UniProtKB/TrEMBL annotation:
Protein name (Swiss-Prot/TrEMBL): Tetratricopeptide repeat-containing protein
UniProt-annotated stretches for the region Disordered: 1-21, 437-458
Compositionally biased spans, kind Low complexity: 441-458
Pfam families per UniProt: TPR_19 (PF14559)
TPR repeat positions: 373-406
Record keywords, A-Z: TPR repeat
Lineage: Bacteria, Pseudomonadati, Pseudomonadota, Alphaproteobacteria, Acetobacterales
Length: 458
């Protein structure tokens, strides 16, 4: 069993001596907007392959993001921005109590060949902002771990804030885009020197492994490849694997649409809330339909914002990156003579928002059509199994009325035509597939069937 959580005002704790034979533990604590979601999705989707390599990516803290872990270590009033779906309909406290039981059981049942456990939650670097809360995390993981490594990717403060703007909209924070006029005294999570000092005070300097989130500083210029390399995990993840591309930003027009929709929902009787299922469905649909670069500040604005963090960044460099000439190599360059002006908040571009709304509507219409066609194809397959050929054919015809080039529906109608001796009809369906899906397995298979009948290629 894991030890009980320490009270919030508990004194510092002396960890017991590490026992030999326990697996190494990597605590990946963030930051957000540094490829964490991609790393988590890659690991979560490959649990079987990781297990074969002696690596455990636990499931009890979450399928991809292990946000349940830091959530279980803070007071309930700090959980406002967590997606309510995380609590499985039972409320935060009950769900977190279940997590603690499941996590203890999962760690107790680690296979004997486990050499490495990875826990990844960017919320650790945000929620666990005091040494006491960090110590509670140490108390939780120390009993099952040998060597502990704390990995965090640091992103230049202005770039991090700009990248996080879309994420702020996703949780219904409807402020206009712009960098805040504050330094580390008002935005302490950007004081990387203090952040690393706090974690080092609990886990020791040798355990802290900060990385710089810049292409030139990462293996293959990529956070996923960099993390797999530092963890010595020999997994090959194709560059076009969709797990690499998650939690993306959106186009500027999509940002205007989200802001306008937020205003409209706020004026409704139920109001606007990050917990609203309607709002979450909306922002997910926008993100799917219009991925893009997000909002970016002007170079002069970025340089002025970053100047407020020059001292803490230099302190971070001296302690953790003494070989680097500066903490971040890629710096914003303001035009010569440019002065950052106090600009009014950017208004919503209603024309851009309208264009984005049209794009979203078209995307949703196409997605709905695909879902409807897929349901009809499933109905047709069920009727096929029941031997109801005519109703099955009607279901496939209904599917291609919705999505004319649906590969499965077209192929099945071609097969039905062939079975009835209608080679010309089968060839017509095959011609549609050759135009729309030339490399689809259904197209290739149907071509083989037509070849065996002696039909000429269309």
């Amino acid at each position: 069993m894991l030890p009980p959580l320490r009270p919030f005002n508990a004194p510092d704790w002396d960890p017991p001596a590490q026992k030999p034979g326990k697996p190494e533990l990597i605590l990946h604590i963030g930051q957000s907007k540094t490829g964490t979601s991609s790393i988590q999705r890659v690991l979560g989707a490959r649990r079987a392959a990781l297990t074969a390599l002696g690596v455990c990516y636990p499931a009890s803290p979450g399928w991809a993001n292990h946000g349940m872990l830091p959530a279980s270590l803070v007071a309930p009033d700090q959980l406002g921005h967590f997606n309510p779906a995380l609590w499985d309909g039972m409320g935060a406290e009950a769900r977190l109590a279940r997590f603690r039981r499941e996590f203890a059981a999962e760690m107790a049942a680690l296979p004997d060949n486990t050499r490495l456990v990875i826990l990844s939650a960017e919320q650790c670097s945000g929620l666990l902002s005091t040494r006491d809360s960090i110590a509670r995390l140490r108390d939780l993981v120390a009993p099952f771990a040998g060597r502990i490594r704390v990995v965090i990717y640091l992103r230049r403060q202005d770039a991090h804030f700009a990248s996080g703007y879309t994420q702020a909209l996703r949780v219904a924070q409807m402020s206009p885009p712009g960098l805040p006029p504050y330094g580390p005294d008002r935005l302490p999570h950007y004081d990387y020197a203090a952040l690393l000092d706090n974690w080092a005070a609990i886990f020791g300097d040798a355990a802290i492994e900060p990385r710089i989130f810049e292409r030139a500083s990462m293996v293959n210029g990529d956070a996923v490849d960099d993390f797999l390399a530092l963890a010595a995990i020999p997994l090959v993840v194709p560059s076009d694997d969709p797990d690499r591309y998650s939690n993306l930003s959106v186009t500027p027009a999509a940002i205007d649409l989200m802001r306008r929709m937020g205003e409209a929902m706020r004026a409704m009787p139920e109001g606007l809330s990050p917990a609203s299922p309607a709002w979450r469905r909306f922002v997910t649909a926008v993100s799917d339909a219009m991925p893009g670069p997000g909002w970016r500040p002007a170079p002069a604005e970025a340089a002025a914002f970053l100047a407020r963090y020059a001292a803490v960044n230099e302190a971070t460099r001296r302690r953790w990156f003494p070989a680097r000439p500066s903490l971040f190599a890629e710096m914003p360059v303001a035009p010569e003579g440019a002065e950052p002006a106090e600009a009014p908040p950017a208004p919503i571009d209603t024309e851009a928002a309208l264009g984005a709304a049209c794009t979203l509507l078209l995307h949703e219409m196409k997605s709905t059509a695909q879902r409807e066609a897929q349901l009809l194809v499933q109905q047709g397959r069920l009727l096929d199994r029941l031997g109801e050929e005519a109703p099955a054919a009607n279901a496939y015809r209904a599917a291609i009325r919705v999505v004319p080039d649906h590969p499965v529906a077209q192929a099945r109608l071609a097969e039905i035509a062939l079975a009835a001796g209608d080679v010309a009809g089968a060839e017509a369906h095959h011609a549609v597939l050759l135009r729309s899906h030339p490399n689809h397995p259904q197209t290739q298979r149907l071509g083989g069937l037509l070849g065996r009948t002696g039909a000429a290629p269309p």
